[in-house]
Amino acid sequence: MSRLLEATGIVKRYGHVTALHGADFSADAGEVVALIGDNGAGKSTLVKVLSGVVAPDEGTIQIKGNPVTLGSPLGARAFGIETVFQDLSLAPDLGPAENAFVGRELVKPGLLGWFGVLDSSKMRRQAADAFMSMGTNLMTLLDEPVATMSGGQRQSVAICRSIMWASEVLFLDEPTAALGVVQTRNVLDLVRRVAARGVAVVLISHNMQQVLEVADRVEVLRLGRRVAQFRAAGTNIEQLVGAMTGALDGSAA
Amino acid sequence: MTLPQSDRADSAAAEQSAVSAPPPIRRRPLRRLLTTSPVLMSAVLLFLVIVFSAIRPDAFPSLANAQNVVMDAAALLVMAVGMTYIMIAAGIDLSVGSVLVFAGVCSAKVMGAIGSDNWGTVLVGLAVALAAGLAWGLFNGLAITKLRVPALITTLGTLGAALGAANLVTHGNDVRTVPLTLIEFGVGGPFGLSWIVWVAIAVAIVGGLVLARTRFGRHTYVIGSNAEAGRRAGINVDNHLLKLYGLSGLLAGLAGWLSLARFATTTIAGHSTDVLAVITGVVLGGTSLFGGFGTVGGTVVGILIPTALSNGFIIVNVEPFWQEVATGFILIAAVYVDQIKRRARDRA
Questions:
Q1: Confidence of residue B134 (pLDDT cuts 50, 70, 90)
Q2: Are B184 and B120 a contacting pair, CB within 8 Å?
Q3: Contact at CB, B229 and A89, closer than 8 angstroms
């Protein structure tokens, strides 16, 4: 059976610097895959390649066995791939429902729609449904600008927005880096619920404890290559750190 | 492990109510409304009216004077609607007053060259004014989006260039070839208001609806709030900004034509502080200088403040230059207040 997302031999050079030396990566539907690696291992570059932000110099990306060219973030979206960047990409002056539909606004039917008149109540309803089904408390904050929200609530808005549109793969770049204990817990619960819907969730994280707790599998990058794959169950932090630093060789999962 | 019976019942009840009752929505519409800039500024406006009326009860609170104030505000409002869009998108357009003059000059010259006095000539004049304004606006937009020259510098440059070009065309003398048809259009109108005012009202209504209710308006807010987020969401930010600067130029062109209707001449030297009044009005109306926030409704109220101030100062025999002094400091104060509000919000 072909995997949902499979990248092989990805090479990305920036001038004289080669960020990825033939990196591989794969993810299956309904699993949480953690992508870990030391600073400069190429995590961010790999995520940018897989979410269409930068084009790889070499290598192939396959979705459900079909080779694809993503081309741009919009191209990646067309394949059901969404990314929550570390900066969240929210418009702070707008509310959560408005943010959820940025660039994909719904318009009223008929002539009004032709003039671009927004169907605000429909967007609010759909966003509220999504926030509710994701178990967040954002429904009560629909009229608050995102700027007035806590870090965890903003993270929830960004994740919920991506989930509304991610039918296949969701990339989360350090989603809990700026969050407190309770908020981190909420975000991790959210991650599990998304995976339970059959979406492949790729979690980029520095927190090994968290990675082992929430992920099904762990892929380790070092110096622009995948050097190890682990099943999270039965793996310990020493093994992950060993693979990241090159002290140990990981066994294939 | 089993929960004690009572706890389980409680949590079941809690779940039940959570499902059946909609979650409490945290909204205080009245309080929020009362603390918005447009409402506060309406109060300020009322205060100004009361003060001026108290000083000159014979002159200020008259119908004729009210007509004067709205007439003064009309051309400024037309430009301020465009400025509202631009400032919500975190831009600025300093060139509007000069573009108004340039468009008026071109329009008057063309109407003079045609020589006839009928609606055909007047409409050709309108088309010329709009085209001249649009051309400057698109130039601004292209320089800002393609050449990446900051909006402040680009429009400062065109502020000088458009006025210089107008003086070149006219050799520095006002053009008085304005058809009587256009002047008459500026005099009469329904409900005792000049057609000039009605045009400004129409621009404000259409501009306000498009901003608040359409995708175009929404994208304007997104760009001002976080342009990178808009770009990632597939909004063509440069294209949108180009349209906004084009719109601002177009509206300045329209204001130039309205100004011909009002003064029957090009008033080349009379618009050097228009941009100050327009930006002050927009900021007083609650539009943030830093983008992402604002309404046309607020701008309508905001633009009346520098206008009422100007009118009131003349009527109470204060030297009219004080109006410029006052407006300048009001602008600084309004932006200071905007900064404080923003900082307080971001800290929350």
A1: very high
A2: no
A3: yes
